[in-house]
Structure formats: C-alpha cells, structure tokens
Amino acid sequence: MKASPGCWTWSRPPARVCCGRYAVQIRRAESLKPFNTLSLQASAAALVRVSNDQELAQAMDWSRSQGLPVLPLGEGSNVVLAGDLDALVVRQCNEDLKVVAEENDRVTLRISAGHDWHRLVMRTLEAGFYGLENLALIPGTVGAAPIQNIGAYGVEFERFVVAVQGLEMRTGEHLMLTAAECAFAYRDSVFKGELRDRVIITAVDIQLSRRPQSDLDYPALRDELARRRVANPQPEDVFAAVVDLRKRRLPDPDKEPNAGSFFKNPVISAERAQAMRTRWPGLPCFAQAGGRVKIPAAWLIEQAGWKGRRVGGVGVHPGHALVLVNHGSDSGKELLALAASIRESVSRQFEVTLEMEPRVYGLQA
Fold first, then answer.
1. Kindly report the CA angle at 179 between 183 and 212, in degrees rounded to 5?
2. CATH of the domain at 268
C-alpha cells in the first residue's frame, strides 16, 4: 500500500463488501504504520477508504453488522498507536470545497473532512479568502482540525468555525454542531471529551474574509517578517514566513517520524507564574484571558534536561524539546514510557503537570 497526502491506494486487491446500492472496499488486518506520522507499528481489524458521505454511511453500516467500532484516521499526525486496534479504521479521501454563503466581505466555505489542511490554506489564499495564513504547514486533515482546535502563531482554528458536520457512529444519523456547541478551548474541544469516539466529522464550515486581516501579534512571526524586511505584510508574506518558520523549527515527519508538539503549554495562575519566575528568572510567560499565564512546555522540558536525549528507539528532538521522535522503534508503548518519564521529571522539578496533545489508541493491547 502506498500512502499519499490525504489518501492512498491499495497495493493488492482488497476485499469488496457490497452494502445496498454502494460498494466499499475493506481490508482485514491491515498495517497502520504507513498512516501515522510517528511510523509506529499497529494493525487495524479492518481498514476502509471512503470518497463521499454515502460510502462512509455504508462502511459504518458494515462495521455495525460486524460489531466493530469505527475509528476515523486522517494523516495520523496527532495520534499515538500503542497497540493493535480492534476497529474499522476509516480514512476519508474527499477534498471537496464549496462556497455556501457570502455576505459583504465574508465568505463561508464547506470543506470535506478528508481535505489536506495545508492544501486548504494554499487554496483559500489563492482564491483571495484570508485568515488561515498563520496555520500554514500544520500536518493533518480538515476533519482533525476541530478535534484538536489546531493553532499556531497566535491564531486558533475556532476563530473561523461556523459549524461542524458529522455522523453519529452508533446510529449513522447526521448531526451539525455550532461553534459554541463544539466547546473549543486550548487544543481541546467536545470531540476530545463528551463526543470522543462518538462522532465522525464529515465536513467543516468556516468563515473567511475577502479583506486581508493578518494576525501579526506573535513575537516569532513579527521577528521573521522583520528579518525579511517586510514593512507592510500581506497574507502571502505571512504564509511564506510561517512556512519557513515551521520548516526551520520542526523536523519533517518523513525524515524523522514525529507527531509535532507532544505536550500542551501549561496555563497557570498569575500568582503561580510570578512565584516560578522568582525562582527561575528565565521562564518565558505569556498573558492569557482571565488573568492566567501560559508557559512553554518546551522550556520546562529543556530545563529538566531532556532536550536531545534518546531512550532506546525513541527520544526528544535536539532542536525542539516539545517534539518526541521515533528513531526506529515499532512500539507506541516505548514512546509513551518516554513521555511519562518527561512528565514525572517536569512535575518533580517545577510542580507543573504536562498534558499530552496526541490521542492514544490501542493501549489495551
């Protein structure tokens, strides 16, 4: 099987399962190693590719007939596979994008869940729909964006969401959640809580602007634009700067398997932050809403001595302490053991608990 951005093709003829008028192709006991950016070995009880909502509904009908839960998997850029999955793993490959509403300089788009995220950023920029530039080069698909409430360089996905479309896994019924119902928070949403593994996202409605409105508040982005001597940044300038920043700061998963930022940046009280800065004067602090303070998990991990360390077949990247790298291990459990050691070390030294960003599957195996 050969993987490709947002989709893939079979390396050998799959089993063909006919459901009503539609046919879906399902492969039993298929390796998921090509489909997670940590390149961890795990197998799915069944694996299916769907290209539209009708095929998805039929695949879900089949899974219910087999007594298998459904697990959607985009590019596998925010998951840790810790063992085999007794589930039907679904990969959506449709990349539809259409305008569903326009008002003044605002445009609302509906994008299929299988659409590659970075390709969406490029398509909207080329079309003159602005806002997503700060989120360029984030790996994954559109369907994964609301789950994680992806964000970078001062911008979070929730800013653009109008609604999220999906199917209820148990019944196959269509549902639509407004932005408020998604309960977005920092790297969090209802899809990681109450609706985890209960809904498969099929499309997302977002609102962008025809008028350039770039967010330039993030210090590293401002510095990069200044380095480039861009006096009046346009969305295309922001896009280019973000792409270069991410390429310089984060390892390429195709060369060094990783899942991007592995831990969330802790958000603590202002009093706690002041106490920590008194003890560790170099601690970076970023003011948040409600008087709270965000501190960089990467700084804590580096100060605890983990940056660049390797343990067995996994390790912490030497260039960015927030990135855990697979150096050849096939074990998700080995990676999770490293993460646990880092969390314990940071907690012991700073009395701060780090929270993982990726979701973990197959841990019972």
1. 125
2. 3.90.78.10
> In this structure, is the dihedral angle defined by the CA atoms of residues 343, 345, 348 and 352, taken in order, positive or negative?
negative
With left for phi above 0 and alpha for psi between -120 and 50, is residue 8 left, alpha or beta?
beta
Q: How far apart are CA 344 and CA 133, in angstroms?
A: 36
Strands 43-50 and 85-92: parallel
170 pLDDT band, cuts 50/70/90, is: confident
In this structure, is residue 250 part of a structural domain? Answer: no
**pLDDT single digits (tens) 59-76:** 999 999 999 999 999 999
Helix (H, G, I), strand (E, B) or coil at 208: strand
* Cβ–Cβ under 8 Å, residues 52 and 90: no
The predicted model scores a pTM of 0.87
SS3 189: coil
CA 124 to CA 144: how far, in whole Å?
A: 18
Q: Which range of residues forms the domain containing residue 340?
A: 258-361
Q: What percent of the chain has pLDDT over 70?
A: 93
| Domain assignment of residue 346, yes or no | yes
- By annotation, the residues acting in catalysis are 187, 261, 357
CATH code for the domain in which residue 142 is found: 3.30.465.10
List C-alpha distances in Å: 293 to 93, 157, 228, 268.
Answer: 39, 20, 30, 5
Tokens encoding 237: 């300038």
Q: Does residue 79 sit in the same domain as residue 105?
A: no
Tell me the average pLDDT of the chain.
91
8 Å CB contact between 59 and 51: no
Neighbours of 314 (CB within 10 A): 25
Number of domains composing the chain: 3
